[in-house]
Amino acid sequence: MAYLFLSLAITSEVIGTSLLKSTEGFTKLWPTAASLGAYAVAFYLLARTVEKLEVGMVYALWSGVGTVIIVIIGMLFLNEPVTAVKVLGIGLVVGEPSSSIWEEPIESAP
Asked: S-S: 32 plus which of 23, 64, 79, 88, CB 3.0-4.6 Å?
């Protein structure tokens, strides 16, 4: 259930962030309400997730996956340019943390 909450938290955060541009600096009522509502749901689900999973791992997934999805949405739907810096950034967000999966855990000294 925790991973379901995490997935829904990421989705809600992505929705809230995707709506930010349409708020026009929080001057448009309904886009602002929808964006802030999505963020409220995201933080509620994130709080429920960390009841069962480690906060560091949860935050890393939430922020990393959300960032990659937002960059892709920006490039596909918000007419943001595809640049080498963005591609490199996404590669670092996705590639570097996943490479540590293959490392042996560090054991603390007694």
From this structure: 23
Q: Are 88 and 82 a contacting pair, CB within 8 Å?
A: no
| DSSP label of 21 | G
Structure tokens at 34: 């929808």
Q: Is 0.85 topped by the overall pTM?
A: no
DSSP 52-95: TS-HHHHHHHHHHHHHHHHHHHHHHHS-----HHHHHHHHHHHH
Rounded to the nearest 5°, which phi and psi values hold at 40? -60, -45
Segment 28-59, tens digit of pLDDT? 999 999 999 999 999 999 999 999 999 988 98
